[in-house]
Structure formats: C-alpha cells, structure tokens
Specification:
heterodimer, A: mainly alpha, MetI-like fold, two-stranded antiparallel ribbon, flat, B: mainly alpha, 16 helices
Chain lengths: 308, 293
C-alpha cells in the first residue's frame, strides 16, 4: 500500500500542522501515564520491604525475591491459584459455547417480535453490576430463598449454593454465564446475519435439511468469529472475575472460591502486607500479559484482527 | 409455503420452550426481588412471596428514603456521573481524533498507539494503584473515582473507528475553508459521530454508576461511598452499622430483607431507565468496534 514516493521528509511545516494533534492527545496521555504507567513502575514494591509512609518511589529497603519466596510458600496462594485456573477455565469454555448455541437457537426463531423480546431480556443482566446481581443471588439462593423453596417442594434437600464448598464454584461459573450469555451472543448473531442467503439456497437445492444447513453453512460462516473469540478469551486464564467472587464468597468457601485477586485484596489492603501482595499481583500481571500478547498475535496472524 | 415436517415442528416447540426458560431465568429473579421489596416484613420472613407482593406496602422504600446515608451515596454517585461522563467523553474524542489519522498525516501516531495499546496488555495491578492514590492524597476525593478511569482505551478504539468512517473529503473541505484540527474535530467529526458518542456516553454512564470497588478502596470514610459501594456494604456484606440499626420502632415494621430488596431495586433503576436507549445502539456499536477484521 505504501509507495516509496509517498514518504516525505518530516518538515517544519508538517510539524506545525501536526502540533495541534499532539496538544489534543496531551491531557489523556498525561492521565494514562499517571494512572497506568506509574503503577507499572510501582511494581518495584514487589522487591521491597515496603513501608507506605516513605512513598511509592521513596527510600525503601530492598529485599530481592524474598516477597516472592514468601508468598509462593503460602498454602493460601496455591489454593487461590488452583481455584482461579479452574473457575477461569470453565468460564472461558462455557462462556464460548453457551452464547454460540444460544445464537444458533435464537436464529431459528422466525417471529421477529419473540426474538427481539428474548434478546431484550437476556442482554439485561450484563448491564447490572455484580453488587446488584450478587445481592439478588444471595437472597434467591439462600437457605430460605425461593430456589431452595422450590427444591424443597420437589422433595429435595436444601442446597447452600454460596456457603458450601461443593457447590460454590459451580454456582459462580453458571451465574457468570447467566450474566453474560445474552450479551456474548451479539457478535455471533451478527455473524449469522452476515452469511449470504444464497448459500442456504444452494444447500437446499442440494437437498440439505435444516441440521445440515446449520452444520455446513451457518457454522462455517461463524468460524472466523468463533476462532477470534476463543483466541481473545485466552487472556483471561487468570481472570476468575474479582467483582463476582468478592460479592458472592465468604470465609466458609475460601477453600473452593478464593481466587488470586481476592487473595491480593485481603493480603494487601486488609492486612497491609504491601510487598508480598504486590508480588502476587505482579505474578498475575506477567502471566496474563504473556497470554494476552500471544492471543493478540494469533488473532492478528489468523484473523487479521487489529485493534487500532 | 413449504409444509413443515413433524421433526421440525417438534424442534420449534422445544426451541420456544428453551427461549422461554432462558428469558424466565433472566427476568424472574428481578421480579421476585421487586415483589419482596413491596411485601410486608412478616410475609417476606415466612417465605410467602413469590412473584407478586404479599400484603403490599411501600414501607421499605419509605424507610430507605428516610436514611441520610442513602441520599448521601446517591448524591456522591450523581456527582461522579456528572463530572466523570462528560470528562471521559471529551478526553476520548480528543485522543480518538488524532489517532484516527493515517500515519502519513500524523507522524507520531504509531508511538501514541503503542503507549495506549500497552495498557491493554499490562497493568500494575491493585496494590501499586492503591498506594499511588494514597500518595497523591486523593483518598476520599471524588477525583479518585473519576481520573483513574477517565481514559478507556477500549472506548477510544470504538470512537476512532467511527471517526474513520467519516469521508475524508469533509475534512479536506473544512481545511480548505481554513479550519484547524480542533475546529474540524468539533465542527465536523463530532456532529457526524453523534449517535456513537451517545452510545459510548451511555456505556460510560453505566460503568460509572455500577462501579463499586474503587469507591470502597479509595474511601477511608463510608460517608464518601457512592451508591454502588454503599449497596455493596449494606446489601451484600450486610453491614448493619451502615443501615443504622438504631431505631427499633422502624425495625419492627420492616425487615432487613425487604429493605435490602428495595435498595437493590433502587440501585438498578437508573440502568433500567437508560437501557432502552442503550439497546438501540449497542448492537451496532459492538459489532463495528470489535469485529472489523
């Protein structure tokens, strides 16, 4: 695309013409530097015996990898790491599958009004915060809540969804799907709408039934976006969802529900162990960055996906 | 009209049932909570309330409306939205306009893009951000809830893509007429991109309204909580001190449970109000923004 003659020398006139553009970016850039890049630099805390009164870049005592050695030996950290990976894994898998199936089924609804209604209702939980949804779930799923009332009337025992280590992870995973499946289906619905109707015509002439049309036309038409969404979700391997877990868990289910982010919060903010907590945060940041970078790279290579 | 086979009819019935079920799962919990909030203390405690209020009363709402802490939090949230959303939008537009230029028309575009893009890959995490706010003496200030999230790179990308869709001839015509970059941006680009600006504003509004953790983290005193953080402590963590368990008279008529439900509903009300407008645009917005590949 770029021709050689196109590339001109950077002249004073061009500098003058582009100067206002620099000024336009400046305020936003300053905020990003202060609130994103300064905390990145603040990760040096992970290698310090950090004392808050001396300030973020103050004269702190260095302690090498001591903080890392300390936190990696804590049983709580290993437990949180395991829980994080398990919860995040299922959220990634189901968060991919459920919206795809939902989009395919919704596409089979011929009535536009029904389809619109279902979409309107199912997108809604996405826009509610986990404080609101957590408040609702805590009430609805409590031992005296309406779900357990229903279970009891069916002759089943009450289940303490949010207080029992056997059920907490499952509850967390499915309630996350509940919040996001409708909204997640939007991109797939758009992909289905983008499929050339002549392809269905041709398939019908070749004698393909509905299932075969779905299998041979619709799904291949969605292949690109499915691969893209899968690849992009790889960046979430250590994101089990702080907002959700924090609003649903309690000390009774730390065993199955404590995740890295909540662990860091309790260690750093509540117990004020700044150095070790930053070490855990840094571990998460670095691993996540590797996964996110790889996923962007794959998306760029295979789907020609570009953010900017 | 093609005749439907039996298996097709069976499939369609099952499919409608699935859709009905999914809709119910999304809607019924909200209706249940709404019904609880309008029910009497005794009915709620006895578990009689299903989807309709039992012994209808607005007492829970009156109780919440009488609490100073609640209105304090609402005020804080309004303040945050009132300053935060316009500021965010202004910054987003100011960043998106230069970055929507091709690299040959804005030489440093690539450098800036990398600076912003890198924040999507890597972050300092919770603790350094928390210490930074403390060091900046911004604890308990409304700015701690606004400035750190004022620039959303994701929104910049959305905006930038809308700007790219505007024909270049418009810009060239404006520049021939002697308009500078700032004028071109606000006289040509912004009016053209008004629907997308509305969409992003609504998303930013919902984001600010729902954001609860920063309020919790960056406030030493609970009277500085915005509504979402207040609700987190009152509804989810059930901190009785904040509800003000003092007046026994009131506690006889209301239950902790119905009041919680009333507060949940009042907390989601603003989002429900803007939701129809939001839905009008977001489908298009997301698709354009996330899948241009």
């Amino acid at each position: 695309m770029k021709k050689k003659g196109y590339k001109r020398k950077y002249t004073a006139a061009m500098f003058r013409r582009e100067l206002p553009l620099h000024f336009m970016i400046l305020p936003g850039l300053a905020l990003v530097l202060l609130f994103s890049y300064v905390p990145m630099g603040g990760l040096v805390m992970a290698f310090q015996d950090f004392i808050p009164s001396k300030g973020l870049f103050g004269d702190q005592k260095w302690c090498g990898l001591e903080n890392f050695r300390f936190v990696f030996s804590l049983p709580g950290f290993n437990r949180a790491l395991q829980n994080t990976i398990i919860i995040a894994f299922w959220k990634i898998v189901l968060g991919l599958l459920v919206p795809i199936v939902f989009a395919l089924l919704l596409n089979e609804i011929r009535s536009v009004r029904v389809s619109k209604f279902v979409q309107t209702i199912c997108y809604l939980p996405y826009f509610m915060s986990w404080v609101i949804l957590g408040g609702i779930l805590v009430d609805v799923l409590s031992t005296g809540g309406i779900v357990n009332q229903a279970l009891n009337s069916l002759g089943l025992d009450s289940i303490f969804f949010l207080g029992d280590n056997r059920y907490f992870r499952t509850t967390a995973i499915w309630s996350d799907i509940w919040k996001n499946f409708g909204y997640g289906a939007i991109v797939y619905l758009a992909a289905i709408l983008g499929i050339d109707t002549e392809l269905y015509e041709a398939a019908r002439i070749d004698g393909a039934g509905r299932w075969q049309q779905t299998w041979h036309v619709t799904l291949p038409g969605m292949r690109m976006i499915i691969v893209l969404m899968l690849v992009m979700s790889l960046g979430n391997v250590l994101n089990a969802g702080f907002d959700q877990i924090f609003n649903l868990y309690s000390p009774a289910v730390y065993e199955s529900g404590d995740i890295i982010d909540t662990f860091v919060y309790r260690m750093g903010v509540i117990d004020a162990q700044y150095g070790p907590a930053t070490a855990v945060g840094m571990f998460k940041s670095v691993v996540s960055t590797i996964f996110i970078s790889v996923s962007y790279l794959l998306a760029y290579k295979f789907a020609d996906y570009r953010i900017f | 009209m093609q005749k439907k086979s039996v298996s097709r009819i069976v499939f369609e019935i099952i499919n409608y049932c699935i859709m009905f079920l999914l809709t119910a799962v999304c809607l019924l919990p909200v209706i249940h909570v709404l019904a609880l909030s309008f029910s009497s203390n005794t009915a709620a405690a006895a578990g009689l309330v299903k989807l309709l209020p039992v012994e209808f009363t607005t007492y829970s709402y009156q109780y919440v409306a009488g609490r100073k802490e609640f209105w304090n939090a609402v005020l804080r949230s309004l303040q945050r939205v009132g300053i935060g959303v316009p500021l965010s939008m202004l910054l987003t537009i100011l960043i998106a306009y230069p970055l929507s230029k091709e690299a040959d028309r804005f030489r440093f575009r690539t450098v800036y893009v990398w600076i912003f893009f890198f924040t999507m890959l890597f972050s300092g995490g919770l603790i350094p951000g928390y210490i930074l706010i403390q060091n900046l003496k911004m604890m308990d200030s409304i700015w701690a809830l606004i400035l750190p999230i004022a620039v959303s790179v994701y929104n910049v990308v959305l905006m930038l893509n809308f700007f790219r869709g505007i024909p270049r001839e418009l810009e060239e015509a404006a520049q021939i007429d002697g308009a500078g970059h700032l004028q071109t941006c606000f006289r040509i680009y912004v009016p053209c991109a008004l629907p997308s600006i509305a969409t992003i504003s609504l998303f930013t509004f919902v984001g600010h309204w729902n954001s609860w953790f920063d309020g919790l983290l960056f406030s030493n005193f609970s009277q500085n909580y915005p509504l979402a953080s207040y609700l987190q402590t009152v509804v989810v963590k059930r901190d009785m001190a904040l509800i003000g368990a003092g007046d026994l008279q009131a506690l006889q008529n209301i239950s902790d449970r119905t009041v919680r439900c009333a507060q949940i509903f009042m907390g989601m009300l603003p989002v429900l109000v803007v939701y129809p407008f939001l839905q009008k645009y977001f489908v298009k917005g997301i698709v354009v923004g996330s899948v241009k590949g």
